[in-house]
């Protein structure tokens, strides 16, 4: 039985992986308990977090993008919309599989947002696209949409299809690790 570990060897290995520090024995139930580690304090005994302006409730970087567009008193309804992820696929992808692309959302390179706007003219549309937020206003509808992925806000395009009364907004996705995403 050469190559098999004995009980003694397995117990020794188990002791190697068992940590004896108090922090290692803490679990999710210890969050907020007195045994949880405290914040680091500076020489004066205060925490390192300092507000820039004590009158503000939160900092600007703590507020999500697009929150200033939320208007709860606006009675306009939200139009129907749909988000479709797209990828550029060529014959080398389809027949030969050379680019290692797959049908997952990790390989998508653009996002198509379709918004149904009945009884609306193209001249009535006001569209503002941010990196993670899309704001669309018309006299009848209001859409504030948090996008599922960051986009290149300056490189997108939009077109209004009169026959279907639908706005199509195509936005290229901003993928910080494109070499990993295989786009």
Automatic annotation (TrEMBL):
InterPro entries: DNAAF6 (IPR026697), PIH1D1/2/3_CS-like (IPR041442). Residues 78-173 form the PIH1D1/2/3 CS-like domain. GO terms for molecular function: dynein intermediate chain binding; protein-folding chaperone binding. Pfam families: PIH1_CS (PF18201). It comes from the Eukaryota. GO terms for cellular component: cytoplasm. GO terms for biological process: axonemal dynein complex assembly; flagellated sperm motility. Transmembrane segments: none annotated. Belongs to the PIH1 family. This is PIH1 domain containing 3. It comes from Cyprinus carpio.
């Amino acid at each position: 039985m050469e190559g098999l570990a004995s009980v003694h060897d397995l117990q020794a290995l188990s002791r190697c992986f068992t940590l004896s520090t108090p922090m290692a024995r803490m679990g999710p139930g210890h969050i907020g308990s007195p045994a949880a580690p405290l914040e680091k304090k500076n020489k004066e005994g205060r925490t390192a977090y300092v507000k820039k302006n004590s009158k503000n409730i939160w900092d600007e970087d703590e507020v999500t993008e697009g929150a200033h567009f939320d208007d709860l008193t606006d009675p306009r309804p939200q139009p129907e919309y749909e988000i479709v992820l797209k990828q550029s696929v060529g014959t080398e992808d389809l027949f030969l599989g050379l680019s290692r692309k797959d049908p997952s959302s990790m390989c998508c390179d653009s996002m198509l947002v379709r918004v149904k706007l009945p009884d609306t003219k193209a001249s009535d549309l006001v569209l503002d696209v941010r990196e993670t937020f899309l704001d669309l206003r018309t006299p009848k509808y209001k859409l504030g949409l948090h996008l599922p992925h960051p986009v290149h806000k300056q490189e997108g395009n939009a077109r209004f299809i009169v026959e279907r009364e639908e706005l199509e907004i195509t936005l290229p996705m901003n993928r910080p690790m494109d070499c990993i995403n295989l786009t």
